[in-house]
Amino acid sequence: MTKQLRRRKARVVGTWSALFAGVAAAAAMTTVMAGTATAATTLGASAAERGRYFGTAVAANKLSDSAYTTILNREFNSVTPENEMKIDATEPNQNQFNYANADRIVQHARSQGMQVRGHTLAWHSQQPGWMQNMSGTALRNAMLNHVTQVATHFRGQVVAWDVVNEAFADGSTGARRDSNLQRTGNDWIEAAFRAARAADPNAKLCYNDYNTDDWTHAKTQAVYRMVQDFKQRGVPIDCVGLQSHMNNQSPYPSNYRTTLSSFAALGVDVQITELDIEGANATWYRNVVNDCLAVARCNGITVWGIRDSDSWRASQTPLLFNSSGAKKPAYDAVLQALNNGVVPTTGPTTGGPTSPPPVSTPRR
Ligand code: 9MR
Q1: Do 352 and 346 form a contact (C-beta atoms < 8 A)?
Q2: Alpha helix locations (H) across 92-214?
Q3: Which domains does the chain have, with CATH numbers?
Q4: How remote is the CA of residue 86 from the centroid of ligand 1, in Å?
Q5: Ligand 1: which atom is nearest the Cα of residue 119?
Q6: For residue range 277-325, what is the model confidence (pLDDT) as tens digits?
Q7: What are the b/e assignments for 102-134, b being 16+ CB within 10 Å?
Q8: Which end of the chain is more exposed for a tag (fewer CB within 10 A), N or C?
């Protein structure tokens, strides 16, 4: 097409200036055909053009801070309650549920047209005292009741749930993490997923963990094998969340894209759920975005807070906005990477074609 047009223009007019005009016209046509949009000016808008979301963790007690909500409302189209949906927040006493702070975040998100990721239904940490002291069948039943009650309360309002969080141990064993939940039996994770599916059949159900970015790590491989096993046995699972807290001890791995595409090839969505990077290394941020955009089923990125002062690791200044709310170089890198991503010609990537098979074979 381009060559033909160029040849025709050259033949008809036969001057260098006309040739130049023809090339320029062809280039413009090529641009339109590739579906490239005009550069979006916010993270959420740019991600949405590419069938994805760009989200942040939100704390209910900051919703009264207008500097905070100004950035939140302008830049993001997905929110994850940072602590307000956790077990200690939603069921402080057994069978007494408190959704006040979580509901405030959900209402804010809905009023702004943002989606909500639910975090988290079953976790060894941030358990209320009553649950910490339980074990065995009583704990298993209490956990399942918690999953059922909370997922039912937010049914239709949460697009994806971190059903189970951080259930694998660090280090080289690839073993499950020891916890009171794990001691109720190895099937506690699938039991939680089945309860969540029954309570909210339309929410995407995710397994979420940290230090699962490097494809060669034992923990990554262990989570991969669990997801593979769940898919083979029909345990309901729709997505894997990679927290992706990166720093000098857990650097951006050059095989990150392999990790994303390998999980995606199992037939699940992949979401980057808690991204923050020590010092806000702009190159690492750009790499993460490029890797997600390269994998069709990597359908969203969430950063774990808005300004550095909002971060759980504030001293590492790991976020996209400084404590005054100004955009950092990492913000520009992320927005540029998003804007450079291909705009799909058909709908969002979720449920779409799966990514190609993993480029390396997982250890078995
Ligand atoms: O950012 C959260 C912080 O405010 C809490 O004090 C902390 C308590 O465990 O949890 C933080 O969020 C964690 C998330 O829920 C799971 N992955 C690790 C996050 C950072 O610790």
Answers
A1: yes
A2: 100-111, 129-132, 136-153, 188-199
A3: 43-340 (3.20.20.80)
A4: 10
A5: 15
A6: 999 999 999 999 999 999 999 999 999 999 999 999 999 999 999 999 9
A7: bbbbbebbeeeebbbbbbbbbbbeebbeebeeb
A8: C
